[in-house]
Amino acid sequence: MVAPIGLGTVKLGRNAGVKYPRAFSLPSDAEVLDLLEGALARGVTLFDTAPAYGTSERRLAPFVRRHRERVVLATKAGERFCDGTSVHDFSPEGIERSLVASLDALGTDRVDLLLLHSDGRDLAILDAPGVVDRLFALRSRGLVRAVGISAKTAEGIDRAAELGLDCAMATYSRADPSRGAALARAHALGVGVLAIKALDSGHVATADDPARRASAARDAIAFAAGAPFVDAVVLGTLSLAHLDEAIAALVS
After folding, report:
1. Residue 107 and residue 73: Cα distance in Å, rounded?
2. Pairing mode of beta strands 79-82, 85-88
3. Counting Cβ atoms within 10 Å, is residue 51 exposed (0-12), middle (13-18) or buried (19+)?
4. What is the pLDDT of residue 211?
5. Domain count, the chain
6. 145 contacts: CB under 8 Å, gap ≥ 6
C-alpha cells in the first residue's frame, strides 16, 4: 500500500543526460535529508530510485536505514549510468547483480519493488529466456517483495500483465495519455500501476508566473492521479513546496 503521490529521486543523484527543461544542481546531503524527511512527514511512502539515477541510491541510504519499516522502496534493474552514458544489461544474471549492488548501495536487505528499467524494447526484454523467472526467483528468496517493469509501450504493459508481474510503471499524463488503455487493462488484472511524467518531465509547469505554473501543475497531477487505474503518481522534485502543490491537487 502506498500514498497516491510518490517521490522519484533521479534529481538526487544525476543531472546529466536528463530531459528537464531547466538545468539544476545536485542537492547537498543536508538538502537531500530535508527533502526525504519532509516528504515522509507529508505522508509520502513510496520512494523510487534506480542505478541509472547516478548516486541516488547511495544518497537515499541514511534515510532508508532510519525509516526502513515506514517506506516502500522501489529500485530498478537493467540500466546503469556510467561515465555520461547509459549501459544496459537485461540478462537474468545482470538483473541479479544489479539488485545485489542496489541493496548494498541502499543499505538494506530487500527492496519492496524491483522494476525492469526498459530501454524501449519491452517485449524483447520480457520475453528473453529466464528474465521473468529470475524476477520471480528473487521475489521467492525475499530479496524483493514485488516485481514489475518500467515500461515504454502499451504492448509491454499488456505482456507484463499476461506474465503475472506485480506492477507496471509508465508515462501517463494529459500530454501523453496513450498508454492509458493498457494500464487500465493491467490494473483490472490486479497489476499495480505507477504513473510517471505527469508533468511531462517538468515541461507543463514552465510559466514564469507562479500562479499559472502552480495551476498547470495541479491540473496535470489531478489528471494522472484521477484515473481510476492509477495507484500512485511518482513525481521527481527537489522542492517540498512543489510536493505540497501535488498533494493539494488531490483534494482540490
Report:
1. 12
2. antiparallel
3. buried
4. 74
5. 1
6. 110, 111, 112, 113, 139
Q: What is the CATH number of the domain that holds 119?
A: 3.20.20.100
For residue 232, what pLDDT is reported? 98
Closest alpha carbon to 7 in 72, 104, 85: 72
CA–CA separation, 128 and 153 (whole Å): 17
In the Cβ-directed half-sphere of 152, how many Cα atoms lie within 13 Å?
Answer: 11
Domain that holds residue 243: 5-247
Q: Does residue 238 lie in a domain region?
A: yes
pTM higher than the cut 0.70: yes
pLDDT at position 56 is 97
Instruction: Answer yes or no: is 207 within a domain.
Output: yes
Cell numbers representing residue 222 in the block? 489531478
Angle value at C-alpha 96, between 63 and 14, nearest 5 degrees = 45
- What is the model's pLDDT at position 10? 96
Asked, for residue 252, whether it belongs to a domain, the answer is no
What phi, psi does 188 have (nearest 5°)? -65, -25
Query: What pLDDT score was predicted for residue 205?
Result: 61
DSSP state letter for 43: T
In a domain, 21, yes or no: yes
Low pLDDT (below 50) residues in the chain = none
Would you give the distance in Å from CA 114 to the centre of its chain? 10
Cell of 185: 487493462
pLDDT of 191-232, one tens digit each?
A: 999 999 999 866 676 556 677 777 888 899 999 999 999 999
CA neighbours closer than 13 Å in the CB half-sphere of residue 29 = 5
